[in-house]
Amino acid sequence: MSVSDAWRGIASEQEDEITGKFSTFLRRRSRRLLGSLLRPYRGLVVTIFLLIVAAQLGALVGPWLVGVGIDKIPQLERTHDLWPMALIIVAYAVSVLVQAVTTRSYIAGIGRLGGRVVLELRRRLFAHFQALPISFHEHYTSGRVISRQVSDMDSISDLFDESLASLVAAVLSLLLVGGGMLLLDWRLALVVMAGLPPLTWLSIWFRRESATAYRRTRTTIAQVIVHFVETFGGIKAVQAFRREPRNEEIFESLNRANAEANLRSSRLLAIYFPGVTLVGNLAIGVVLLYGGYRVIDHQMQVGVLVTFLLYLQRFFDPLIDLSQFYSSFQSAGAALEKISGVLEEQPAVPEPEHPATLPAVGAVPGRGVRFDSVRFGYRRSTVLPDLDLTIPAGQTVALVGATGAGKTTIARLLARIYDPLEGQVRLDGVDLRQLTDSSLRHEVVLITQENFLFTGSIADNIELGKPGASRAEIVAAATAIGADGFISALPEGYDEQVGKSGGKLSAGQRQLISFARAFLAAPAVLVLDEATSLLDIPSERLVQSALKTILAGRTAMIIAHRLSTVAIADRVLVLEHGRIIEDGSPDELMATAGEYSALHASWQESLA
Amino acid sequence: MPAPPHEQTPAQALWRLREYLRPYYLSLFLMIMAAILAVTAETVIPLVTKSVIDDVVVRGIRSELLPLSIAAMALGTLQAGLNFFRRWSLASAVAGMEKTIRDDLYHHLQRLDSGFHESWQSGQLLSRATNDLATIRRFAGFGVVFFITNTWTFLLIIALLIDMNWWLGVITGVLFLPVSVLCLRFERRYRVLSRRYQDQQGDLATYVEEAATGIRVLKSLGRRDEAQAQHFGQSKVVYGTQVDKSRLRGTFWAGLDMIPNAVIGLILLLGALAVSRHELSLGGLVAFVTLTLLLIWPIEAMGFIIATGQEAATAAQRIYEIFDTAPAIADPDRNASGQPDRPGLVAGKAVLGKAALRTAQAAPGPVAVARRASRAAGHLVFDDVGFSYPGAPAPVLRGVRLDLRPGETVALVGPTGAGKTTLLNLVPRLADVTTGAIRLDGTDIRDVSLAELRTRVACAFEDPTLFSASVRKNVSFGVQDASEEEVLAALEAAQAEFVADLPWGLDTRIGEQGMALSGGQRQRVALARAILARPQVLLLDDPLSALDVHTEAKVTEALAHVLTASTALVVAHRPSTVLLADRVALLQDGVIAAVGTHHELLATDVRYRELMSADDQKDGLAAGATR
Prior knowledge:
The complex is a heterodimer.
Chain A: H1 28-38, H2 42-79, H3 83-131, H4 134-140, H5 142-184, H6 186-193, H7 196-233, H8 235-240, H9 244-296, H10 302-343, E1 369-378, E2 381-391, E3 396-401, H11 407-414, E4 422-427, E5 430-431, H12 437-443, E6 444-447, E7 456-457, H13 458-463, H14 471-481, H15 484-489, E8 497-498, H16 507-521, E9 525-529, H17 537-551, E10 555-559, H18 563-566, E11 571-576, E12 579-584, H19 586-591, H20 595-607
Parallel strand pairs in A: 3-10, 3-11, 6-9, 9-10
Antiparallel strand pairs in A: 1-2, 1-4, 4-5, 7-8, 11-12
Chain B: H1 10-16, H2 25-58, H3 65-111, H4 114-119, H5 122-164, H6 166-213, H7 215-220, H8 224-276, H9 282-323, H10 332-335, H11 343-347, H12 349-362, H13 364-373, E1 380-387, E2 397-404, E3 409-413, H14 420-426, E4 435-440, E5 443-444, H15 450-456, E6 457-460, H16 471-475, H17 484-493, H18 519-532, E7 537-541, H19 549-563, E8 567-571, H20 575-578, E9 583-588, E10 591-596, H21 598-604, H22 606-612, H23 622-625
Parallel strand pairs in B: 3-8, 3-9, 6-7, 7-8
Antiparallel strand pairs in B: 1-2, 1-4, 4-5, 9-10
Helix pairs in contact in B: 1-9, 2-3, 2-5, 2-9, 3-5, 3-12, 5-6, 5-9, 6-8, 6-9, 8-9, 13-15, 17-18, 21-22
């Protein structure tokens, strides 16, 4: 049976690959970004450049002094005067020291410069992602947010870490050694340089081929990894459905593709490196032949011939460095391009230029909410055609309705995740758009059904509601919500570490922790996307009683999924196609033969 | 983490890996010969230079220049050609070895029980299959060869130097040795820093990941500043390590340049004296310098080779740790041997792929037969079943007794952590009972082959596992020869009609790398998978927990039809699911505490009422509404 790729199925690839062409490398916005990052370190950049030049000059002088020293030997034989030779040795020692000190400084310098630039870029990027609205994150997806900040930052960091120093040094070495040879004996230098064209051609060929081969190894190993992780992540299903033999076929073919890609990469190296060696070795022969004749004919000194032999390696080796590090240069360029694109994204929910302040909270706790002729829709479809809604301070409103009726949209407008297309959402009479983000977030808190927990202790996660809260406050919040019982029962209590995304806790327990978090934040207005369908009945009971505590003393809007929640509300809004079709207290609505009483009847039925 | 059955040192583990190189012994031998010849040719080139200077330049024998130059070029071409041969032939040996080990590792891991997989983080297994293997590949492709050739080069060059001038040769050799030590020390310190750097980068990446996935929480609480401060703090830690790293690298590279250059300066001084005292020829001095240059790389590399060797040995140890773990759950006849099951090692490299294929082709035969042969029975008995996790203080299950008649549907109800999922896992032998026995149609399931057992039993888990493949492949996961009609029928029974609306219908890729499905959609696909298997025994672990009330009702109705064909054990959290069952078993404190119909238990059992009834809700509509 042949293993084709059909089993994978079809998926729309969202890869934002930037092709590795030089033309796309460092476009204007990338250059601008790089400029702004490097500007504070202009002095350091210049210093590093001078240090590299000095190091390369030091490396250039050494072989030349060896040649000069060899030419002084006949004189030493005749006069037995050690001084000229001693002078040369001293000069040589100085060049060695200069080279060592400058090499050390420039490598460390580039490390520091790169570290600073990467640190600043990381800071900007993270801050920018935090500032961009939820709507951006929804269409950009968390996967790409992460890869911008992790793998793209890594390519840039790698460039500074290892490659940039070698790259600059290689270019300078090529130029300086070439210049040095021309100064010593231009004819012989030209003969040596005849080796450059074939070597350059070979290097360009290798760079192009190896870029493709490298990409191939990356994609094939990625497929091996995905299959491996999926198999052992779902090993129970694999074993229960006897999937092992078929999996082995698939894995074998993916693994074979990877082995072939690796083989191709190694074989390219098998051609390239011996190729460079060959050119270098032939150059030695040519230098010996032509240089030898020139020395015999007294057109050149033997020391120059020796210097040339010593220079050969320094002349051809940089090409290897160039071809090896060019790809990291390129991927860093592509990464910078993607990052600069993100940084130019403007927040769709901008901060006000002249922020307003809210009046002090009145006698009734919470704040009044008002939707004023609000219209909203996503791309093509209108979700809310024209919504008018007034919620007095302290009231708990439950939104009920089918999927797509606009419940979530209303909640999101109130939390200002989106701005209305028309009309206004007001908090105690102030348009939300006139509040700063931080004052708005202080007043309005949205709890979604995700109840995401961060790595850290349970206490850390509750504290997120009010940074700097004391342990007593945290315990008080948990107690009020009814979470203290299970938290105290954990081996480490409040210091229990929650696993990745809170995996160790049940869904109900996670929800209680996120309630405690919101309770501690004590907002004037709470928006709650309630989801208890994942909870078992005892957990649901816990959450229901916690809800009552958390809703007391503030204005609240709940998206109710289970009608038991609705009972807690002062007022129920039944939505259909973005319009309020029923509005009243639960008891009032029960009394009328409307949508709500119908829903209620079917709910009772489901309880059996 | 389970300990390997017998301890072995890293070096022993590395030595054991040679079995994977056996198919390449001949080409490895030829390759090492080529490598030795190549470095020898390289070493001879400076001697040609010596002759050029001594004979042609100093003594003026002009006619020798051309042949000598041609000899240098010929040697140079020979060296390049041999290097090409070495790299080319080594490449396929190394790639083949890596592939074979990885295939074997995968094969072996698939046969280890889920208990093993639960005790290992998947990241640890992955790093063995990728990073550790890459380390071994690097050592095999680089370390082994260069260890041999570099030793040879070192000895050859020092011998040549001593031959030209013994005291200068000895001095050079002695002065060079510290370079090896420097390299080894650098490698070790740098590795510590690199590890630290990687860990810190990993921590930063974790935070970035959390901040990205938890963006709604951060935003709705307005915790932007705090998140930024934490991110910046972690970034600064990474920065600090990176600067330390580049400082260490700077010192090292500077030292690496300085020592050989200093030695050459010394050779120039002492060599000039030797030449002036006619103890060394002029060409000899030049050869001395160029040969010394050739010494730098082998000596530098020794430090790296020792370091990669140590790393590869540790990697080999980590890999054998897995290979040496015998599957705890195996077919009846294999149980006795306790041998790790690795065809690649037995069959050698070429056969491996075929061996795997043969297993694959052999499997569908009996499986297909079994699927169609035995329809009628399916009498499942839990006979005093006990289970405890290794190392856990108390057993999860203590004497579960339950008898499921053929075709009967039993709901399993119990508080969180009662062991419901554990009990279900025991039936397809994802874990084995610690005491008691499970019998299927009278036979202890441990006496049935795994392939047969897992054909007769199918399950859908609470957290449905989908794979990055088409919907079709996900549904026909256990039944490779399923027809389009069968797949569609199974999807219909699971009320997964949403599949028709996916962009490519049945061919749409789902799972991590494909279309994101909601929890309810995932559950329905997994349910269809279990239905399609048409098993004698169907195990459903709360299969409807993520569905909304409306869909749940429809699936329940469809399931009622499907369940008549199989014996079914269904874990349930909600009354609506329980109603599917003929009987309900309450699992509490590791035993079946009560058995009866839903209404019986609701009326008679307090514990059951606590779990299943909305009656206890202290407030709201529910109180009056239920009865």
